[in-house]
Amino acid sequence: MTPTIAQPALPADWRDLVALTKPRVMSLVVFTGLCGLLAAPEMLPPVLGFTAILCIALGAGAAGALNQWYEADLDAKMRRTANRPLPAQRMDRQTALHFGVGLSAFSVVLMDLATNHLAALLLAISILFYVLVYTVWLKRRTAQNIVIGGAAGAFPPLIGWVAATGQIDLLPALLFAIIFLWTPPHFWALSLFVRSDYAAANVPMLPVVAGIQNTRLQILLYSLTVAGAAVAPWALGLTGTLYGVAAVVLSAVFLVLAVAVFANKADTPAGMKPERRLFAYSILYLFALFTAVVVDRWVAA
């Protein structure tokens, strides 16, 4: 059964609809999707390219809306999410459901019309994976929710590439792998200093079920795999030296910060400055790494 909360009397404000799409998360999704599109060997006409990125953004927003629709009860129990439209009772759940489903369908159909069937299929899979696999199946059941569910956020560069080329190639598959492996250390760093929220909501995030030090170890181990995946496109000859140098330098900093997290023994949010630094840098890391992919491809061209 899906959770229920009290229904507000007033209709939703447009800003609440925007908030349902998780704009901050969407910005990273849109950026990596754009990088996949721009790194592809074939270029779409500008209007179609813009439409493809718009569809990726709308698909991500739709997934965010459906996630909040299903998790309204969890969001109400956590301080950092309690002011979202549904737990704050500024919107009824039916509105959120209709908005999410409608936006999902529109984004997939538009992607199919503007680009190709495969790009539309991948977009649909990414939405369904985030909503059904991560949100409905994994989030409340296992500490591996982020590990497996991270695949949903890894689709955008693959979708962008396929929108331009109509096929899946090794480079976008590696870009998918980078985000997939990056997601656990990124979110676990966050979950360490907000673990009380997850504990209050009874969400089995790794720090809640396996402890702080085990989580720090897992962050370090996954950071090693991120570094390996980041360097792989250069090592395999799919990118040039510019990307290779950027990947090595950026990943080295990532690993230094991950080691600092592993070495930290503090068990209170106030003492978790290394975790906060890694979380903040991980966002910059992904932006910089994907920028390097595009710049490297353009320089080579």
TrEMBL record:
Catalysed reactions listed for this entry: heme b + (2E,6E)-farnesyl diphosphate + H2O = Fe(II)-heme o + diphosphate
Coiled coil: none
Intracellular or extracellular location(s): Cell membrane
HAMAP family: CyoE_CtaB
Other remarks on this protein: Carbon 2 of the heme B porphyrin ring is defined according to the Fischer nomenclature.
Function: Converts heme B (protoheme IX) to heme O by substitution of the vinyl group on carbon 2 of heme B porphyrin ring with a hydroxyethyl farnesyl side group.
Similarity comment: Belongs to the UbiA prenyltransferase family. Protoheme IX farnesyltransferase subfamily.
Protein name: Protoheme IX farnesyltransferase
